[in-house]
Amino acid sequence: MSSFNNNCDTLESIIFEGGLRIIGLHFHKELDLMLIVLNNKKVLTRNISGIEKLKNATAEQLANYSLISKGVGVHWPDVDEDLSLKGFLKEELSSVSVPMAS
Q: Which domains, from first to last, does the chain contain?
């Protein structure tokens, strides 16, 4: 099995068995920043411009979101966008650089 599949299985375990959830979002359009607040007191960051349907959204449209599936996902009705905690975590893992063995 590839490490990608192992990471997905691990993420699903953390979310569905471990109970990790999104509890809130905060937006700073002027900084191109979205903060994803998790129930384990961690905060993930994303650039708003990196999400096609959110990059041109107004501050009001960004603020009009609902947590879906008890915090496993987020829905923005004004821009018809849905994003998942699993997707946010996959992006977080892909952005972490692993030191090369010497």
A: 3-95 (3.30.2020.40)
Is 66:44 a contact under the CB 8 Å cutoff?
Answer: no
State pLDDT tens for residues 53-93: 999 999 999 999 999 999 999 999 999 999 999 999 999 88
Q: How many CA atoms lie within 13 A of 50 on its CB side?
A: 10
Q: Are 65 and 74 in contact (CB under 8 A)?
A: yes
Prediction pTM value: 0.83
Q: What is the distance between the alpha carbons of residues 1 and 50, in angstroms, rounded to a whole number?
A: 30
Residues 6 or more apart whose Cβ sits within 8 Å of residue 95: none
For 38-49, what is each residue's pLDDT tens digit?
A: 999 999 999 999
